[in-house]
Amino acid sequence: MIKKLLAVSVSAVMMLAMSVSAFAAGSVNASEQKILDELNAKNVPARYVSQAKNYVEKDGVDITEAQANEIIAHIDAAAKIVSDAGIKTAGELKNNKEVLDKVVAEASAAAKVLNLTLTFNYTTGDVTVTDASGKTVAVVNSKTTKTTGADSMSTVAVVSVLGLAVATLAAVTKKNAEA
Amino acid sequence: MQKHKNRFAKKLNRVMAYIYMPLLFSLLAYGVTYLMASDVIDIAVNLVSLISADKAPDFTNENNSIFVKDSVEINDDDGVLTVKRADVGMADYGDLYAYVRCTRIALDAPVYYGDDDAILKKGVGQDFASSQPGFGRLIVLCAHNNMYFNALKNIEIGDIVEIETSYGTYSYEIKETKILNENDSSAFDFAIDHEQLVMYTCYPFDMLAHTPDRFFVYADLVSGPVFVD
After folding, report:
1. pLDDT range class, residue A82, cuts 50, 70, 90
2. What is the largest CA-CA distance in chain B?
3. N or C: which end of chain B has fewer CB within 10 A?
4. Do A148 and B145 touch (CB under 8 A)?
């Protein structure tokens, strides 16, 4: 369980490790592979590892060994924060704002080093990373699937009006009956 | 005097009923009609707006398209189709980079990299953590059940789904379908050891409101260009 928790807490930081722009052409170099291996070794959820792989496979992304080491240091720091707090589940982390803030700060610090901006949505648990130009380079949703039902806004509006009309009709009918 | 007032009020009520009752029923009728034909109405309104616009429409805020049909050279190396890895363009978030098709069920939709609400209004969205075709990994596509993935209700085991990219067309054979809860983490596995296409949409298909279930379709890669250095 601790492994799982550590995986969740450091995943945002690890994701950032994959987000450094440089000059390679769509292949995974040794430093990047080192980070991917580290991710797998620490049982980081496969969704995050996959997100990381996507990024390092992009053209123009090349992580140096120094950068990789720095990223891994941030991961260790985030993991230690969680471990020291005695948090054992993702739910506990989410409910412990003090620890969560520290983990997010660690991730944000890593992002700043890489000239990236990390945004953590405290309501949904979603993580978004953007580069200096504002382009989204990583998105990690906390939910397994998206809402893919009918676009319900217009339906809700119309049904609301219909409901109001029916209620009015009922009220008028009742009033007439009483009269 | 009071009796006279009451009689007047009753009369007024009866007269007013001839106004508000037809209005209310008209409202109900229009509402129901709108619900039934909202999709067609939206298309018609957009079409009229396009025709009657004073100036050319501005599509600068639209998602970028990196899909260019047959733009990458595909070689035949002793019966194996290959494409240079360096020629494979990697999509950014929101890019339209492919089309997903299944002729038998009339599925033909654009695929955008990303799956937020704005994207799902335009076509099929792809989980940003999943991979583009050809990388030997998981591909997760989703779309609204009353739009692009409504056709999935007719999918059958053995059907072939194709994803056409700028660097070639990849074919996948449907192996399984499942109905699972929206939060079921076993729905797909990002660590899978082979290339798998997963498509999902809300279930039941004709539900207008939010549904907690999803209809999942699983398909394995059958053919497509292989990357070479």
Report:
1. confident
2. 105
3. N
4. yes
Residue at token pair 């654009």: B110
Counting every residue, how long is chain A?
179
List C-alpha distances in Å: A137 to A52, A115, B41, B62.
10, 12, 37, 18
Task: Name the closest residue on chain A to residue B185, using Cα atoms.
Answer: A144
Indicate left, alpha or beta for A39 from its phi (over 0: left) and psi (-120 to 50: alpha): alpha
**Chain A residue with Cα closest to B126:** A146
Give the whole-angstrom CA distance, residue A119 versus residue A126. 8
Q: What pLDDT sits at residue A14?
A: 46
Which chain A residue lies closest to B140 (C-alpha atoms)?
A145
Identify the residue with better confidence: A33 or A176.
A33
Helix (H) or strand (E) holding A153: helix A153-178
**Which A residues in the span 136-165 are in contact with B, Cβ-Cβ below 8 Å?**
136-141, 143-152, 154-155, 158-159, 161-162, 165
CB contact under 8 A, B183 and A166: no
C-alpha B77/C-alpha B70 separation (Å) is 18
pLDDT along chain B (229 residues), means of 10: 77 79 80 71 70 63 80 91 92 95 97 93 94 96 94 97 97 98 93 96 84 96 94
Sequence-distant (6+) residues with CB within 8 A of A8 are A45, A90, A93
